[in-house]
Amino acid sequence: MSDTTLTPSEKAAIRASWEVIYGDQPNSGNDLTKRLFTEIPETKTHFKYLDGIDDLEVACQNKRLQYVNGEMMKMLNSFVDALDNPDTLMQRLTALGTAHGKRKIPEIGRASCRERV
Asked: Is 67 strand, coil or helix?
């Protein structure tokens, strides 16, 4: 694979936007998780340690979820870092899909996430 279909200006815009988001990791991670749980509520069922917690503000105080949010932010950052290297980007995306498959996260849930990205 030689290149992504993104133009240099699109890549620059992604990087500039991401820099702002990544610069505030704890809040941005919580915001992304809240959005995920709000727009695709079934995704919350994969976080068993949040069972019975309906308030998203309370859920985001959970130490385990904070760790997951941090890992999600690092993963997304690695995608942005790989924008100029499509092979690396594809490897990272494939690894993410494999990891979610091992956790028995249905493809339909992953497809819903992809649509929103």
From this structure: helix
pLDDT tens across 49-77, in order? Answer: 999 999 999 999 999 999 999 999 999 99
* AA identity, residue 81: D
Task: Give the closest residue to 56 by CA, choosing from 28, 30, 22.
Answer: 30
Other CB atoms within 10 A of residue 96 CB:
16
State the angle between helix axes of 25-39 and 8-22 in degrees (0 to 180), rounded to the nearest 10.
100
Nearest to 70 by CA among 24, 39, 117: 24
What does pTM read for this prediction?
0.83
Listed residue (81, 78, 83, 65) closest to 29, CA to CA: 65
